[in-house]
Amino acid sequence: MQIRVGTGTDVHELVAGHRLVIGGVEIDHPMGLKGHSDADVLLHAVCDALLGAAGLGDIGEHFPDTDSAYKGMDSTRFLYICKDKIQEKGFMVANLDCTIFAQAPKMSPHKKAMAACIADVLELSPDCVNIKATTTEHLGFIGRKQGIAAQATVLLYKHKS
Ligand SMILES: Nc1ccn([C@@H]2O[C@H](COP(=O)(O)O)[C@@H](O)[C@H]2O)c(=O)n1
Ligand SMILES: C[C@@]1(CO)OP(=O)(O)OP(=O)(O)OC[C@H]1O
């Protein structure tokens, strides 16, 4: 058995006039995340963790923000494609552990739906996807509600043939 660990980190600016989509879940909030795609900071961190574990670089290499094809893209599409890329290399996902850094809004009411969305795309049991959230105690750009960050750690495995 071969096992591989990967980590992913992403940050997006929080601004008025944008939707707030995190972990594939749209959250009702006066501000949203700005990006080339739907700016789903958590799914981007998960994509980077998957790509990293498989030795496949990062999200920007696969989906450049200079490509108009990805403008406004639903980030679950990126996640489906990343899943295919790691499966082509023979890897399966064992589990994911993620953290969202946001002063507001509260993520607790949405964490189960986020885990279910990620598990659905990756064809995993929801209990293999753990979502955590933390404020930064009003410190820094996250504490000032200027942005939201996310980190993900993933374990991949494959049976040696
Ligand atoms: N955006 C957030 C931030 C935090 N939570 C939940 O609150 C707990 C306490 O947060 P601290 O930053 O004070 O440690 C945290 O463990 C989360 O359960 C949240 O839901 N949404
Ligand atoms: C996803 C991509 C592509 O639409 O754009 P953004 O939505 O801006 O997100 P980012 O986290 O900067 O990741 C890489 C980009 O190539």
Automatic annotation (TrEMBL):
Q: Which UniProt keywords apply?
A: Isoprene biosynthesis, Lyase, Metal-binding
User: Which residues are tagged with the site Transition state stabilizer?
Assistant: 36, 135
Q: How is the cofactor bound?
A: Binds 1 divalent metal cation per subunit.
Cofactor(s) named in the record:
a divalent metal cation
The UniProt record gives the binding positions of 4-CDP-2-C-methyl-D-erythritol 2-phosphate as 10-12, 36-37, 58-60, 63-67, 134-137, 141, 144
Question: Is Lyase among the key words of this record?
Answer: yes
Entry EC no(s): 4.6.1.12
From the UniProt record, list the reaction(s) this protein catalyses.
4-CDP-2-C-methyl-D-erythritol 2-phosphate = 2-C-methyl-D-erythritol 2,4-cyclic diphosphate + CMP
| Pathway entry | Isoprenoid biosynthesis; isopentenyl diphosphate biosynthesis via DXP pathway; isopentenyl diphosphate from 1-deoxy-D-xylulose 5-phosphate: step 4/6
Q: Which InterPro entries match?
A: MECDP_synthase, MECDP_synthase_CS, MECDP_synthase_sf
Q: Which residues bind a divalent metal cation?
A: 10, 12, 44
Asked whether the keyword DNA-binding is assigned, the reply is no
Gene3D superfamilies registered for this protein in UniProt: 2-C-methyl-D-erythritol 2,4-cyclodiphosphate synthase (3.30.1330.50)
Instruction: Supply one GO molecular-function term.
Output: metal ion binding
Instruction: Please report the stretch or stretches of sequence annotated as the 2-C-methyl-D-erythritol 2,4-cyclodiphosphate synthase domain.
Output: 3-156
Sorted alphabetically, the Gene Ontology BP terms of this entry are: isopentenyl diphosphate biosynthetic process, methylerythritol 4-phosphate pathway; terpenoid biosynthetic process
Q: What does this protein do?
A: Involved in the biosynthesis of isopentenyl diphosphate (IPP) and dimethylallyl diphosphate (DMAPP), two major building blocks of isoprenoid compounds. Catalyzes the conversion of 4-diphosphocytidyl-2-C-methyl-D-erythritol 2-phosphate (CDP-ME2P) to 2-C-methyl-D-erythritol 2,4-cyclodiphosphate (ME-CPP) with a corresponding release of cytidine 5-monophosphate (CMP).
The record's family statement is: Belongs to the IspF family.
> Subunit info?
Homotrimer.
NCBIfam families attached here?
A: ispF (TIGR00151)
Q: What is this protein called?
A: 2-C-methyl-D-erythritol 2,4-cyclodiphosphate synthase
* Origin species: Desulfobacter latus
